Amino acid sequence: MALLGSLNTGASGVKTHGKTMQVVGNNIANVNTFGFKRNNVAFEDLMGNAWPQGASFTEASNGVKIGAVEMDYSQGAFESTALTTDMAIAGGGFFTVVSPSTNKESYTRNGQFSYDKEGFLSTLRGGRIQALKVDRITGESKGIPGALQILGLVDAPQPTGTGIKGTGMKLAANLDANASVKDVPVDPTNVTDNMYNFATSTTVYDALGNTHAATVAMRKRPDLPEQIDPGTGQPIAGTGVSNQWEYYVMFDGASLGQIPGTMVAVGGGFMQFTDDGKLIAATGGSFEAQPGGVDPDGNPLPGGPPRLIPQPVDPDTGVPQFAIPFGGGAPLVIGINLGEGFNPDDPTDPRSGLDGITQFAGSYNVLRTSADGNPAGTLESIFLEDNGTVNGMFDAGYTRSIGRLVLTKFDNPGKLAQVGENMLVETLGSGKKVTGEAGTAGLGEIRSKSLEQSNVDLSQEFVKMVETQRAFQASAKTVTTSDEMIQDLINMKR
After folding, report:
1. Which of 182, 254, 407, 478 is disulfide-compatible with 443, CB 3.0–4.6 A?
2. Which helix (DSSP H) or strand (DSSP E) does residue 401 occupy?
3. 435 forms bridges with which residues in the sheet?
């Protein structure tokens, strides 16, 4: 009966718009909830009976229902805070959260994080934020995502490196091309300042985290005129050398288990420059005692002072390496990078010969000197980069990357299921899931000391509220009017 159909139609409108008002009210209630995404209601009509229309039949609608309630993932405004643990996503993606009790994964845009009792970066309800570990040497992400522990994190000591992938000691300086030649014998067991032209020091670390002052001393060598072998007519090797310097890597005797207060050279090498002051190559070397030989009568002669004998650089690192017996114990291999020398005979060589040691006219000038490694330390605080890298500041006075937050995106985020507490979970309708580092694969950047505000627009919601109210009232009027018509019909039969 048509009147009963109109009654049902009106009732469906009352029911549907009542639920719509609930959605609108929820949007308004969460206007100040960080990371909240407003919900939109999608309506669908209900099909009823087929009514004859001439020789055909016409489908007549029989009301309305809610087809879906989907989230609007438009970007919310950012609010600055003073907390380093407050984070916001600029762009797509969600923070990835795992419950420590259930090990289940969920997702959120609310970056109001803090530390749980075990020091893990967590949501206000204890879900742990997922991150990748960062290789302390290469700075690259590694492994699979896991919880990121911050408070109470103890960092083991890290010795100064071997030179591979940028580790070890690094020195950049200009050596005065007009410096005087130093040609006095060098005693590696007691190097004095009259044996070299210039020196600079930096701190290195042994395997236990102890600090040692490594000193690199440099001395200018005399030019060697080219000599010709009369037998072959060819230049004699080692002659015809100019623009050459020696360098020595030295430590106080106390660091090596020897006499404190003496400067002991553990090795050294040679640096060759072009006529215009660019580094061609830097080699390694060790001191070797010179044999004394014998006199005409066969009596042994005293040996000469130790001489620096060149050795090939390490083929894996490309830098000179030195084995240093700190405390007289097992040697620790440390690499020293003096710059990438170039081939002056190859115009296609991309290296400049200017990134480390140079030899120009002018005063000796140290541009930079550094060494990696660190003592043991306890994490005190963090700061965040846009790519989600969490950098830790330790009480021993150094900083390093301790993790990189991951974000997760879905093909259809509107189909994620809301489970309360600003959390969402994956559903069949949410589509393909991609987890990765911020700033990659369509994932947004992470902003520190910021929170994403709700994307609820109150003026828009008030308009929607008025529209819903009017639709509800009209549907209610349809119900009452249909009821009156039915009553009239009943009265007509009486």
Report:
1. 407
2. strand 399-410
3. 408
Residues of the chain with CATH 2.60.98.20: 164-371
Residues in the chain: 494
Would strands 357-358 and 169-174 be described as parallel, antiparallel, or unpaired?
Answer: parallel
- For the purposes of burial, counting CB atoms within 10 Å of the CB of 314, is it exposed (0-12), middle (13-18) or buried (19 or more)? middle
DSSP code for 213: E
Q: How far is CA 16 from the centre of its chain?
A: 49
Which neighbouring-strand residues pair with 113?
Answer: 123
What average pLDDT does the structure give for the chain? 88
Quick check: helix, strand or coil at residue 327?
helix
To the question of domain 164-371 being in CATH 2.170.120.20, the answer is no
Give burial (CB, 10 Å; 0-12/13-18/19+) of 146: middle
Q: Rounded distance, CA 145 to CA 98, Å?
A: 10
Burial class (CB in 10 A: 0-12, 13-18, 19+), 468: buried
In tens, the pLDDT along 9-60 reads 777 778 888 898 999 999 899 999 998 989 888 888 776 555 555 555 555 5
Tens digits of per-residue pLDDT, 173-192?
Answer: 999 999 999 989 899 999 99
- Residue 127 dihedral angles phi and psi, to the nearest 5°: -70, 135
Give the N- to C-terminal CA distance of the chain in Å, as an integer.
Answer: 19
pLDDT given at position 447: 93
pTM: 0.70
